[in-house]
Amino acid sequence: MIDQLEQIKREALAEIKQVDSPKDLDTVRVKYLGKKGSITTVLRGMGKLSAEERPKVGQKANEVREEIQASLDKMFAELEERALAEQLEKERIDVTLPGRKVHMGARHPLTAVVEEIEDIFIGLGFQVTEGPEVETDYYNFEALNLPPEHPAREMQDSFYVTEDILLRTHTSPVQARTMEKHEGKGPVKIVCPGKVYRRDDDDATHSHQFMQIEGLYVDENVRMSDLKGTLETFVKEYFGADRSIRLRPSFFPFTEPSVEVDVSCGSCGGDGCRVCKQTGWIEVLGAGMVHPRVLEMSGFDSKKYSGFAFGMGVERFALLKYGIDDIRHFYTNDLRFLEQFTWE
């Protein structure tokens, strides 16, 4: 039996050296050390041995089992190390390769335009003021000289939440709220940027949601010449020093007198082209002197105080500045369009 055990050991050690996976190694273990393995089979015949031979055979069996187990453990460690090395080789990273370019975001073109316009007016002494987008009928209409029966309300088809609450149709309510807070004491000098909403069919030049910036200056002895000078300075700062403005009579319920403001066409220099419809001018905003009734409803003495107000569409200014032909580009989140403004 001792010879048999030696033969089993030699065979086991030889097979262990040939395996190349943990699964094959376990098969060898079961073959030699399992309950039905070779060593167990030999030991079952010990009952036929004499009392003197049994301890020797038992000792030899233990030695063979320990040697085989040690060889199994060593080979298992080698297989694990080999597998780890192969995995590391597959996952090896070349640290000398250049890094991947990080895709950086940028300001939306409308945000860039709003901030640029704000900066210009801040430089002229205005403060930036904001207000709620969901407004009451009073601040959106009545406080701006638009009582319930006023026909001009039909010009602004509105989104009503209730009979008295709606999505604001302009940022003028911010002006009314700000004047109220001043309790009839000037000066008030603000610009009010923000989203506004009107029931309109979306097309290349219209949207049911768009952005406005309105301005207000109320103080003693504010004149129409102050309005013209302010807007002329703004236009030259925004469009360029070679541009000029003209004022045309118009009508707005909250200003009197009221004007439409045109800027000279940058494409033709005022000579007339397709962009300006051969007129040499492009309409950009509305303005006027604050109506005395609007001042009085906000707590100001219209005999002591006067003021001017103006309002512009941010999208229109962005269209003109960047030569964009469709307002819907601003709201479709098309990266091909937005990536053109990564330098902004």
Offer a quick outline of the entry:
With 344 residues, this protein is an alpha+beta fold.
What is the CATH topology of the largest domain?
BirA Bifunctional Protein, domain 2
**Rg of Cα set:** 43 Å
Mean pLDDT comes to 88
* Helical fraction: 25-40%
Overall, the morphology is rod-shaped
CATH architecture descriptor name of the largest domain: 2-Layer Sandwich
Would you list the SSEs in sequence order as H and E?
Answer: HHHHHEEHEHEEHEEEHEHH
Name the strands of the widest sheet in spatial order: 1-4-5-9-8-7-6
User: How much strand?
Assistant: 15-25%
Strand runs, count: 9
Ends: how far apart? 90 Å
Domains, number = 2
Number of helical elements: 11
Structure class: alpha+beta
List unreliable stretches of 5+ residues.
none
- By CATH, the superfamily of the largest domain comes out as Bira Bifunctional Protein, Domain 2
Which CATH class of the largest domain? Alpha Beta
Tell me what you see in this structure.
The chain is α+β, with helices and mostly antiparallel strands. It has two domains: 2-90; 109-341, Bira Bifunctional Protein, Domain 2 (BirA Bifunctional Protein, domain 2), CATH 3.30.930. The protein contains eleven helices and nine strands. The strands form two sheets. The chain has a seven-stranded mixed β-sheet, with helices on both faces. Strands 2-3 form a two-stranded antiparallel sheet. α2 runs antiparallel to α4 (53-90) and α5 (109-123) crosses α10. The longest helix has 38 residues, at 53-90. It is rod-shaped and about 135 Å long. The N and C termini lie far apart (90 Å). The mean pLDDT is 88. Tetramer of two alpha and two beta subunits. Mg(2+) binds at residue 256. It comes from Aliibacillus thermotolerans. Its cofactor is Mg(2+).
